[in-house]
Write a structure and sequence with these properties.
The complex is a heterodimer. Chain A has five helices and six strands, in the order E-H-E-H-E-E-H-H-E-H-E. In chain A, strands 1, 2, 3, 4, 5 and 6 form a six-stranded mixed beta sheet that branches. The relative contact order of chain A is 0.23. Chain A has a single domain (4-175), classed as HybD-like (Rossmann fold), CATH 3.40.50. Chain A is 33% helix and 20% strand. By secondary structure, chain A is α/β, with parallel strands linked by helices. By secondary structure, chain B is an alpha+beta fold. Chain B has helices at residues 46-50, 58-62, 70-85, 91-122, 127-133, 135-156, 176-201, 243-246, 271-278, 284-293, 305-325, 375-394, 400-412, 418-421; strands spanning 21-28, 31-39, 165-166, 169-170, 215-218, 229-232, 237-238, 247-250, 259-262, 342-350, 353-361, 367-373, 425-432. In chain B, strands 2-1-13 form a three-stranded mixed beta sheet, covered by helices on one side. Chain B has a three-stranded antiparallel beta sheet with strand order 5-6-7. In chain B, strands 10-11-12 form a three-stranded antiparallel beta sheet. In chain B, a hairpin with a 2-residue loop joins strand 1 and strand 2. The chains are: A alpha/beta, B alpha+beta.
């Protein structure tokens, strides 16, 4: 059974692919026996709900548009996102906040959910490459994820005498 | 001196439609003086982008036109290009394209019923609000949508803007194990789909009959997705190459999308038009389930569009079960294609209605010209006519909020994809009493 699902949400457009890049760069560093599922989703809309269900722990990575410095990693609280304005302008407007709201209403959020956002600027969503700043931010997030996973896996293997399951995360997280 | 009042309402967003549009309504006393559905999204120039591109790029480019119905754009395009090159796909390709299409109907219809339209009938502003009181209905919708997405991923590599289709077939054939797993999931979803039809039939619907011309594909021995001739309820029976001789598009001053007319009249495309013209092509179990609801088709009630979508979800699951039960991966999932100069036409049934493509190519297979007629632009004139009729039947002695909600319900019956045709309705209502 998958103990942890890491989902990168994004699109092919420039820095909006930050979530995908996290998954791509993390994938070769994660041994299969860790039972971690790495998923890249292309603007899933309400389809995100199916990926949040039936897993005990989920780390969700997405780009977040800001006016400030690009490439920073933020962890917005779940409550913060759930209380954000719900734009119901059609399924095209069914974004992260709406999907999390729907999953929460249906009781389908994982037991443990972490939100990780990489800041991007509106001007950098054109083209196919990450900007220098967002590229560095993605590398930083991938390194932090990997360090945590190594630590948790070692901890689990040492203290539980087995492999393939994760203990609880030690980083800051949001509980549903 | 008579009392005079002028009311103007601006609603910043018509929620739960795809794209951005506006409705301007001016009422004097008890009559509608002006009613205009405006689409103001800027034109997207996809047809121009395609010029000079190699034919092999077309399926991936046109998939970008819509995040909800990319399969339809790909299927009409490959059909047209294969005709231009004199290529006939083999039976495996035709069957799998039909299965690919089942996935799109399933995800699009389940999305529209449960997340976009249903809140209207159960008295909620949004699916999120509705989910608290009707969690099982919303979960059913999400499950059906997920199943549709899975089918699209199987052939397309991903469910949004899939990349698996090519002129001649598919880049990749799904493995036997993946298709067998899908087959089992489809079997499990059949009961959900049957229940959905019965459930939709019991929702309170306005009883409003009106006259309109239905236009849809029709095929001798199957409910139409991917193949067939184009029929209308008033006797039209043509191939894709004759579309331009019977239909024409024109600009309306208040809309950035072209309006399509048949014999200078509005017409309907989409699930209700398809079911009205193809009821006899329903698979027996689906027809029997529909018969038990007591609602009869052909129907002249546009509010039966949601029921037609539910019926088509059943059709898609039924077809997908048949298409997956004896699946065998082919040696090569496409037929070889040699480009040549020519003109080709394609028409298939997108979830929202018939989607017509025409391409002209040169010897090297470069696109010389492209023309794409999406279903929502075909339905624009019909939506305006329907709003006139439906609002008159509903009565204008309602509050502005009630009138706005009724207009939105009428528009949502068409599941318009305004983004395809060129994301919310701004309603400007003026009353002069």
């Amino acid at each position: 059974m998958t103990a942890l699902r890491i989902i990168g949400v994004g699109s092919p457009s420039g820095d909006d692919r930050a979530g995908w890049e996290v998954i791509d760069r993390l994938k070769p560093r994660i041994p299969v026996e860790w039972s971690i599922e790495l998923i890249a989703l292309d603007r899933p809309g309400s389809g995100l709900v199916e990926w949040l269900a039936n897993v005990p722990e989920c780390w969700l990575v997405d780009a977040i548009q800001v006016e400030g410095v690009p490439g920073r990693c933020l962890q917005p609280g779940l409550d913060e996102l759930l209380q954000a304005d719900v734009a119901t302008a059609g399924s095209h407007g069914f974004g992260l906040s709406e999907s999390l709201n729907l999953a929460a209403t249906l009781g389908l959020l994982p037991q443990r959910l972490e939100l990780h956002c990489v800041t991007i600027r509106e001007a950098d969503i054109f083209g196919q490459q990450l900007s220098t700043a967002v590229n560095a931010g993605v590398n930083g997030l991938v390194s932090r994820f990997h360090e945590r996973l190594v630590k948790q896996f070692d901890h689990t293997a040492t203290f539980k005498g087995g492999v393939g399951s994760l203990g609880s995360s030690s980083g800051s997280s949001v509980r549903s | 001196m008579t009392d005079s009042r002028r009311i103007q309402i601006d609603v910043p967003a018509l929620t739960r439609v795809e794209g951005e549009g506006a409705l301007h309504l001016r009422v004097e006393g008890d009559s509608i003086k002006q009613l205009q559905l405006s689409i103001f999204e800027p034109p997207r120039y996809f047809e121009k982008f395609l010029e000079g591109r190699h034919f092999s790029e077309v399926p991936d480019i046109v998939a970008r036109i819509c995040g909800i119905c990319p399969v339809a754009y790909q299927m009409s395009a490959v059909q047209a290009l294969e005709q231009a090159f004199g290529v006939e796909p083999d039976p495996w390709v035709k069957q799998m394209r039909r299965l690919f299409y089942c996935g799109e109907w399933l995800q699009s219809h389940a999305l529209h019923i449960h997340l976009l339209a249903l809140p209207d009938y159960l008295g909620y502003d949004s699916a999120i609000g509705m989910a608290a009181d009707h969690p099982e209905a919303v979960q059913r919708g999400l499950a059906l949508q997920a199943l549709g997405n899975e089918i699209i991923r199987l052939f397309g590599g991903r469910s949004v803007h899939p990349v698996g289709a090519r002129v001649g077939g598919f880049h990749h054939a799904p493995s036997l194990a993946d298709v067998q797993a899908l087959h089992n999931r489809l079997q499990g979803a059949r009961i959900q789909a049957e229940a959905l039809t019965r459930w939709c039939a019991e929702l309170p619907m306005p009883d409003q009959a009106e006259d309109f011309v239905c236009v849809a594909l029709s095929h001798d021995d199957q409910y139409p997705f991917y193949e067939g001739r184009l029929l209308s309820s008033d006797g039209l029976d043509i191939g894709a190459d004759a579309w331009e001789h019977h239909f024409h598009e024109e600009h309306a001053p208040h809309s950035t999308a072209l309006w399509a007319l048949l014999n200078d009249q509005p017409y309907l495309v989409g699930p209700l038009a398809r079911l009205n013209l193809n009821k006899q092509r329903l698979p027996d179990p689906v027809a029997e389930n529909l018969e038990r609801t007591g609602i009869h088709f052909p129907s002249r009630n546009m509010f039966h569009s949601m029921l037609a979508r539910a019926v088509e979800i059943e059709v898609a699951i039924h077809e997908a079960i048949l298409l997956t039960q004896d699946y065998r991966p082919p040696e090569q999932p496409y037929v070889d294609v040699s480009p040549r100069a020519g003109i080709g036409y394609g028409m298939t049934e997108a979830p929202r209605g018939m989607l017509w493509h025409r391409y002209e190519t040169d010897d090297a297979g470069l696109i010389q010209s492209a023309r794409i007629v999406p279903p929502t632009s075909q339905n624009q004139a019909r939506i305006e006519a329907d709003l006139h009729h439906s609002l008159t039947a509903f009565g204008l002695a309602h509050s502005d909020d009630e009138i706005r909600l009724h207009c939105e319900k009428v528009i949502r019956n068409y599941d318009p994809c305004i983004s395809c045709a060129t994301h919310f309705l701004r309603l400007k209502l003026e009353r002069d009493a």
